[in-house]
């Protein structure tokens, strides 16, 4: 028999699924499509959506749902609480001066990665992503970094969820264990034309005092500038910047 506590947990889980879904789907989607994708019956989904709108967590525009003002407020406070913005901004500015490429910090939120701090490179050709933008874990060097040190079962679960949110099952095959071992052994990951054939990135982990990966630090830009000769230099810049972030990061808030 389902207890009141279990019922509440189930509702919270469904709310989390709805918010995750809306955060990664930029195009307007119907309630019917959302119901099918999330496997939540329409009457239940309608009740959840109406409640979230009433609380300011979602907004409804022309029959479709988008993140509301309270989500934006929570997101800003969450980034500030992790102290990444204050610590990361200065470090990334120095990193960009040296590497001459766009630098970003990504954190994992369930099965997605979020760009939390970003400093654009000086070149006219650059990789454009906005702070707060959700991106897949299963594509890009930063996603691989955020997954590589997790237990295999957790890694596979998050990989599958990321593909379900963003699509691409026909393009992105589950990497071999040797690939994950190589990333852990090298301490960095490289993506050449994976999400976009013209773009490349290289990423390293940012570690917490609990010896867990707290974020990934990346350089990204046109693939032509990420040559075999340039990558080792970029990795050294990244590793030095990651150590600087770790030394300043207030772990009591992380």
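Q: What amino acid sequence fits the structure above?
A:
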């Amino acid at each position: 028999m389902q207890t009141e506590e279990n019922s509440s947990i189930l509702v919270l889980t469904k709310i989390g699924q709805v918010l995750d879904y809306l955060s990664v789907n930029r195009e307007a989607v119907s309630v019917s499509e959302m119901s099918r994708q999330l496997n939540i019956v329409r009457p239940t989904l309608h009740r959840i959506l109406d409640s979230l709108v009433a609380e300011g967590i979602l907004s409804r525009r022309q029959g479709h749902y988008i993140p509301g003002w309270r989500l934006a407020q929570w997101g800003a406070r969450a980034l500030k609480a992790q102290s990444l913005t204050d610590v990361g901004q200065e470090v990334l500015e120095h990193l960009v001066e040296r590497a001459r490429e766009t630098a970003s910090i990504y954190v994992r939120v369930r099965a997605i990665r979020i760009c939390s701090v970003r400093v654009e490179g000086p070149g006219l050709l650059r990789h454009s992503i906005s702070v707060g933008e959700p991106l897949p874990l299963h594509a890009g060097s930063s996603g691989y970094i955020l997954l590589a040190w997790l237990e295999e079962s957790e890694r596979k679960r998050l990989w599958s969820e990321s593909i379900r949110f963003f699509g691409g099952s026909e393009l992105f095959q589950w990497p071999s264990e040797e690939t994950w071992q190589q990333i852990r052994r090298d301490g960095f990951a490289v993506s050449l034309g994976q999400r976009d054939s013209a773009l490349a990135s290289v990423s390293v982990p940012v570690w917490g005092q609990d010896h867990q990966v707290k974020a990934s630090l990346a350089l990204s830009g046109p693939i032509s500038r990420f040559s075999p000769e340039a990558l080792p230099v970029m990795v050294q810049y990244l590793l030095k910047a990651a150590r600087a972030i770790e030394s300043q990061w207030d772990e009591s808030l992380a």
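Q: And what stands out in the fold?
A: The mean pLDDT is 83.
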